Amino acid sequence: MMRERQMLDDNINAIERMQSSLSDNVELIEMGEAEGDEDVIRDAEDAIKLLSTEVRKAQIQVMLSGEADGNDTYLEVHAGAGGTESQDWASMLLRMYTRWAEKRGLKVELMEVHDGEEAGIKSATMLVSGENAYGWLKTESGVHRLVRISPYDSNARRHTSFSSIWVYPVVDDSIDIVIPESDVRIDTYRASGAGGQHVNTTDSAVRITHIPTNIVVQCQAERSQHKNRAKAWEMLRSRLYEEELKKREAAASATEASKTEIGWGHQIRSYVLQPYQMVKDLRTGVESSNPSGVLDGDLDEFMEAALSHRIGGGEGSVEDID
């Protein structure tokens, strides 16, 4: 309650300060025009331009005020059909989100990874911890498309690859989700990839299947089967909570539900490396001619636009906030 009170207090103070600053600078412009003082007018206009940047940041904070937006989040990557090509693309996406999180000062923990036969990964799950981790990443769920000259094709032909991203929030202690053990199937298996001799020679990895929804979670981050089982249960609770959030959103607005529905055929963004350089978000129309920067974690522009689109807003401006 104290954290919520402090957040509300900070928001109110920020709004009052921005309103006061805008009012003061408008008065300065009027005075400068009356007295013919161009320096005063220019200084006040510059101050209003700086204020517009602050208002834009405040708009983003409003967009990150959902029920679970402040929570940590899980992010899953799954390679699509296409073997090595899509598995390599999945590993590129995992790196992209890892770099994005590191740039924002968020903590990343790899929960499980299934390596591809030749290169890349078949799937992976990572835990992203920090301020508004779920709020920022929640619009990234969907299918991501890559077009490039394949490094695995001896004829240097252009290939199109698909991988999917799934994002769901970590459930905190204030939310109680009861899952009857009769509703789940628990399997243990030998972990793959790096992790030491013990990890690779014992059935320490855990997979839990929720039978009513067919949701599957798995964890191999720890050497202990007991710890992996506990984390897998946390992941399952989070997935079921995310399903409930989607149901509430769908019930609140059929239009919004159609915008945010996630499916394997629902492509949200294209990354084209050949024959030209372009990343385009198909929901918002936001484009970047610097795919190397985007793949290195420069995603904020795409995320901000997607958040605006999700709540029915546009790009936003000072005039949008009265």
Automatic annotation (TrEMBL):
Positions of modified residues (N5-methylglutamine): 197
GO CC annotations, alphabetized: cytoplasm
Cited SMART domains: PCRF (SM00937)
SUPFAM superfamilies, per database record: Release factor (SSF75620)
Lineage top rank: taxon: Bacteria
Domain Prokaryotic-type class I peptide chain release factors: 190-206
Record PTM: Methylated by PrmC. Methylation increases the termination efficiency of RF2.
Keyword line: Cytoplasm, Methylation, Protein biosynthesis
Subcellular location field: Cytoplasm
GO molecular function: translation release factor activity, codon specific
NCBIfam families recorded: prfB
Family note: Belongs to the prokaryotic/mitochondrial release factor family.
Function: Peptide chain release factor 2 directs the termination of translation in response to the peptide chain termination codons UGA and UAA.
Matching PANTHER family: CLASS I PEPTIDE CHAIN RELEASE FACTOR, PEPTIDE CHAIN RELEASE FACTOR 2
Name of this protein: Peptide chain release factor 2
Gene (name only): prfB
